[in-house]
Amino acid sequence: MRHFSILVILAITFSCADNPASEKNITDTKSLRTDVQLEFKTRALLGEGAIWNYKTQELYWVDILGKRLNVYNPKNKSNRIFPVPYRIGTVVPQTDTTAVIGLDNGIYILNTGHGGIRQISNVEEEILTNRFNDGKCDPNGNLWIGSMHLEETEAAASLYKVAPNGETTKMLDNITISNGIVWSGDGRTMYYIDTPTSQIKAFDFNLKNSTISNERVVVEVDPADGYPDGMAIDAEDVLWVGLWNGNAVARYNPNTGKMLDKIEVPAHNVTACAFGGENLDILYITTALIDMSEDEVAQYPLAGSIFSVKPGVKGVESDFFGISNK
Question: Which residues form the active site (predicted)?
């Protein structure tokens, strides 16, 4: 028995040491972070899809209902706007002058030089009761993008994988509002949100063929805190989640399910966040103006704006469309 106990202790010790999100390796951001700042004042109806282009040092984000892609430069506080003909769910950079976007009727490449678009997939073009929502790229350069039921009442949407050549594969179905999606630092775990479930799920990710398996729930979000929306991951493999109806961004440890930190934001509906800046130590936060009562509009006059905070930890470079990082 004595030898068995020693082996168990050693096994637990090595397990924790090898786990990038074990409690002892996680930074206490509450003691390090700065206050939230207004980064860019605007009135986006549904600001979403935050992602940092580390090559151009710009924040890409979308106003879904405003039907526009935004490219924000924090150095000169400028925000370039690219109108699109349909609601835009998400954006991921491809090159210095192109990005992949999801519109109501499919997946497109948008040129950030002249604003032109070309379709590479017409997935869900015929499903008029859905629209595309959040999406990000995996370590192999594929876009994972989910749809959502417009009435938000039926699990009638799906999650798709779109290859750089436009080949599209359904990966999950029975989704209501497909949202935040990120990968662990080693690329072997994918985290995913279907907002009405109030859960963050994890999947084993196969780097050889870009497939997922072993679905499990790693975080149960308390509805009292809001509903989980867009998501980012930091260099410690800990999750940062925008809270719709929650006035905040929360930090969750996916190995324990615990909320480690909550950053209050002066907007009722916090939609997404992304690490940016030259050192990836700034968290940019998007918000929405819709779905607010008159009292809430009066209480949060900056709703729809972009906010920023130094959270005390660094993020990681986002994967781009069509570019393999593994």
Answer: 229
Place of tokens 């506080």: 77
We report the CATH number of the domain holding residue 244 as 2.120.10.30
Instruction: Give the residue numbers of the binding site.
Output: 48, 131, 133, 151, 179, 229
Please state, as a whole number, how many other Cβ atoms lie within 10 Å of the Cβ of residue 231.
24
Is 325 inside a domain boundary? Answer: no
Which residues, at least 6 apart from 204, have a Cβ–Cβ distance to it below 8 Å?
188, 189, 190, 212, 213, 214
Which of 63, 134, 229, 319 is an active site residue?
229
Tell me the pLDDT band of 1, cut-offs 50, 70 and 90.
very low
Q: What is the pLDDT of residue 18?
A: 46
Q: Look at residue 118 and tell me if it is in a domain.
A: yes
Residue 165: give the domain boundaries. 29-309
How many whole angstroms separate alpha carbon 300 and alpha carbon 80?
25
Which residue numbers belong to the known binding site for substrate? Answer: 131, 133, 151
Above 50 in pLDDT, residue 8?
no
Please provide the average confidence, as pLDDT, over all residues in the chain. Answer: 93
**Dihedral angle computed from the Cα positions of residues 253, 231, 319 and 54, in that order, rounded to the nearest 10 degrees:** -100
| Ramachandran class of 302: left when φ > 0, alpha when ψ lies in -120 to 50, beta otherwise | alpha
Task: Answer yes or no: is 227 within a domain.
Answer: yes
Number of domains the chain contains: 1
Instruction: State the amino acid at position 165 in one-letter form.
Output: N
Report, as an integer, the average pLDDT of 138-151: 97
Does residue 229 have an active-site annotation? yes
Binding residues for a divalent metal cation: 48, 179, 229
- CA trace torsion 74, 238, 253, 220 (10° rounding): 60
pTM: 0.92
pLDDT tens profile 226-263: 999 999 999 999 999 999 999 999 999 999 999 999 99
